[in-house]
Amino acid sequence: MERNAGGRLRVLAISLLGLVAAGVVVLAPPEEVAGGAGTAASPIPGLAGLPWGLARIRAPEAWQVTRGSEEIIVAVIDSGIDRTIPELAAVLWTNPREVPGNGLDDDGNGYVDDAFGWDFRDNVPAHLRRTQLHWHGTFVAGIIAARLTEGGAAGVAPNVRIMDVRFLDSRGLFTTKDWDRLAAAVRYAVDNGARIINLSLYAKGQPPAVVEQALVYAAENNVIVVGIAGNDGRPEVLYPGKYPAVVAVSATDSRDALAPFSSWGPEVAVAAPGHEVVSLLPGGRTALGSGTSYAAPHVTGTLALMLSADPSLTAAGAVALLLGSAAPLAGSDARWFGAGLVDAAAGVGRAAQRTP
Ligand SMILES: [Ca+2]
Ligand SMILES: [Ca+2]
Q1: Quick one: which ligand is closest to 99's CA?
Q2: Which of 122, 256, 306, 332 is deepest in the core (most CB within 10 A)?
Q3: Using CA atoms, how far apart are residues 137 and 65, in angstroms rounded to an integer?
Q4: Coil/strand/helix, residue 347
């Protein structure tokens, strides 16, 4: 196992063990983030400063067509997003039919003052969190859509809009008591205009039917759900990535090898960079993180660019183009990488060609 076990990881690992010992069987993303201020990915020749993952999926070439449209909304169902980071504040979704802070459900969607998304952990509007944010959601959102900053992090689709839907707790975890929250979070994203949902989380064991029903609801409403293979490093894709309604993503390293922590199996749809990925922590520091949680946002961002290039694409149509344009990896096993490494330039190119 190639894990950069920094202090943060050790703290997290201890808490995970504590939960297992307590008989709580459902765990969420145990990715590690090592570093902080001053850490950065190794520069790519000719692309100095750009995170290697973005170069590898050919995001700069895709940006020649589009950097994303503000009409395309991506829901990040995760641990919440730090709204104070300028690179993310610029791309966060606002609910156009909800007046914040007036105590009224102006748009009648069942959520009072959800002007900036909803926090299903504290059950308050997304900007009124009561409990401390875990870094995971900020890191994931940054990979999808952070505005490029000099020498810092950048997202795949920096002009789309991110809907902040908090689900994971302050430790980045959830338990078996939370399945209804997850289903509600998925339905919220669908009902409020998301075209894509990023689900960088996994569970031990199979969720109850309410979760799959929500994911099928997303598919029926033309919403793509991108999930993860999991971080067990074993030949078993974990839920919810295992569901047919989810585009399951495995993680590669900078040599296009399957990352040692990445789970794999026949349900893997596509692979993306997930080892030592550059993104943002709450507060705005740049850091490296490793996990399938950070591979999925590369795919989510690519799909967001494709939908920006052609908003008339259906969810199924976009996924078919994504898989058809992925780059096969030499000597690969389809259970490792699915259709191959996500290729944003090819995917966006094909989507743009569809437009009359
Ligand atoms: Ca509302
Ligand atoms: Ca209101």
Answers
A1: 2
A2: 306
A3: 28
A4: helix
Q: Which H or E run contains 294? A: helix 292-309
Q: How far apart are CA 138 and CA 82, in angstroms?
A: 6
- Ligand sitting nearest the alpha carbon of 102: 2
Number of residues that make up the chain:
356
CA of 123 from ligand 1 middle (Å) equals: 13
Which ligand sits nearest to residue 107's alpha carbon? 1
- Which residue numbers are catalytic? 78, 136, 293
Spatial CB neighbours of 10, under 8 Å, sequence gap ≥ 6: none
Regarding the domain with residue range 25-354, which homologous superfamily does it belong to in the CATH classification?
Peptidase S8/S53 domain (3.40.50.200)
Alpha carbon of 133 to ligand 1 centroid (Å):
23
- Domain ranges, ordered by start, for the chain: 25-354
pLDDT tier for residue 102 given thresholds of 50, 70 and 90: very high
pLDDT single digits (tens) 278-330: 888 898 888 889 999 999 999 999 999 999 999 999 999 999 999 999 999 87
